[in-house]
Every structure is written in C-alpha cells, then in structure tokens.
TrEMBL record:
Domain Porphobilinogen deaminase N-terminal, first and last residues per copy: 5-213
Catalytic class of the enzyme: transferase
Entry keyword annotation includes Transferase: yes
Domain of life (superkingdom): Bacteria
Residues modified as S-(dipyrrolylmethanemethyl)cysteine: 243
Protein name (record): Porphobilinogen deaminase
Organism lineage: Bacteria, Pseudomonadati, Pseudomonadota, Alphaproteobacteria, Hyphomicrobiales
Subunit text: Monomer.
Function: Tetrapolymerization of the monopyrrole PBG into the hydroxymethylbilane pre-uroporphyrinogen in several discrete steps.
GO CC terms of this entry: cytoplasm
Protein keywords: Porphyrin biosynthesis, Transferase
Organism: Mesorhizobium hungaricum
Amino acid sequence: MQTTLKIGTRGSLLALAQAHETRARLVAAHGLPEAAFEIVVITTSGDRVQDRPLSEAGGKGLFTKEIEEALLDGRIDIAVHSSKDMPTALPDGLELSAFLPREDAREAFISRKAARIADLPAGAKVGSSSLRRQALIRRMRPDLDVVLFRGNVQTRLRKLDEGVADGTILALAGLKRLGLEHLVTDLMSLEAFPPAPGQGAICIESRIGDQQTGALLAPIHDVPTGQALACERAFLAALDGSCRTPIAGYATVDGERLVFSGLILTPDGTDICEVAREGLAADAALIGAEAGADVRARAGAEFFEGWS
Ligand SMILES: NCc1[nH]cc(CCC(=O)O)c1CC(=O)O
C-alpha cells in the first residue's frame, strides 16, 4: 500500500477504543503494519455541548457532522462510530460500509446503593440522558427520580461517585471496550430493558464508490451484524426522523433467520407499543421497515403528540 489509510474518530476514550479495535482487525486481516493506518482524532459539536440534553441541542448528528465533513473532504478515508449514535440518514456520498461483530448488546445497571434497579429505595436518583433509558426506568419504577446525566462514560461514573445519582445505566459494550466491565452491578435482560437500535455494534462509514477502501473493509465486515443492523435501522427510520421518541429495537441473526423485537414508549413510560417479527435475514431492512410501520399505525398519532 502506497499511502496510509486515515481512520477518523472522536477523541473520547470509548471512540478511541473503537478506532483501535478497527485498526487491529485491519492489521490482522491484511497482514499490514500498524503504521499503514493512521488514527485521526476529530472534535465534534456534540463533544462541546455538555449542558443540555442532546435532543435539545440538535440530536445525534452533532457527533458525526465534523467527521463526515472530513470524510467528504478526503482528510480521512473511513470513520469509526458506535452504530447507535448514527442518524438513519447519512449525508449524500457516504454509507455505512462495514460492521464489526456485535458485542453483547445488554444494558448494565451500576450502583453502590442497590444490587438491582428493583432494589433502589423510592425517590432514589437514577442518572441518564437517553430518552429511551429514562422512559424505561419510569416504566419499571415510576417512584424513582430520573435525573439528567450527560457526558462520556467516565464523567457519568464520576458523577455516581460524587453522589449526583444513586445509580445509572450504561451499555455493557462500552464498559467492556473501556475495560470497565468489573464496575457492573447488574446486567439487565434484553426483554426487561431493551437496547437502542444499533447498541453494541461498531460501524464504519466511508465514501460511496471508494473501491480501494471497500476492498480493505470487506474482510472485517460481519455479515450477521450487518443484517441485524439493517433491520434495526430500518425500524428506527420508519418511526423517527429525530431522536425525541424513546425507541428500542434488537435483531438477532442465526443463519438465514432473523428475529426482531422493538418498541416505542411515551417519555413517562406509561404507554408502550411493542412489535415482534421474524423472517429471512436477507429481508432484514424490509422486516424492520414493516415492524416500524406496524408500530406507527397501532400507536396512532396521539402517541406521538404533545411531547415531540
Ligand atoms: N451514546 C453514547 C454511547 N454510544 C455507544 C455507547 C456504548 C457502546 C455501544 O453501544 O456500542 C455509548 C455509551 C452508553 O450508552 O453506555
């Protein structure tokens, strides 16, 4: 290879861990030296907004804007992201061209006050900035006090230590990538606390038509993860253009079969609309889109009213 492949990433420890994992897989797949890949750290608008919920500041796209500009300008060749942070619509000219094998998608409860979320005393504070997590907590425990908790994984853990909250919920996948799995107090089941679409899957974004990069990525792409993600992202796209609806969705692929379940709920957790579908993995996007259309039709317009 003549030139180095430039890997763009945010600068958080989690983002860097994901970029390093991607580079390690590329090195192993191609027998190239590490120096053939350069990691380029890019600060995004999302990294600068710390005082407001992201849904107010402009949504998920805030974490990808500057990185996508660098991709389109050719300053980087690929961008590594957490799939769950990726908006469903990408800028013209870019695509998600590879998914690494998915990590465990479950949610982890972390607390020094209780062994499980069910054991927290009434009125205990649980910190989260995710609308889905807030709504699921309220559904499970309407008597808890849900508090806004922004910042990266380390910041949130520090806030727990400082007593800003009695517990929090984080993705196991992120904790594992940071080597912080030992902090998990309780792992929640996929049914009791369903993950965000895309949770646990690292994705790689690149320029459409960049064949050289496409050939480099092909051996590290995991087909079942790509199919599960196509389903989950189609579900999300069918339901929500922004990130103001609490949405969960999770697909698994076993050979030719795909099994999906998803739900939306109101922010206070009182109303819920669930869906379960299965079919051929090759029809992943169709299954997700139909599940989303079904939920949208059954939930009705009132479901989305008053809080969007
Ligand atoms: N929004 C932050 C974010 N984006 C991806 C992960 C975890 C890693 C993953 O789901 O792949 C996290 C942290 C968290 O939710 O605990």
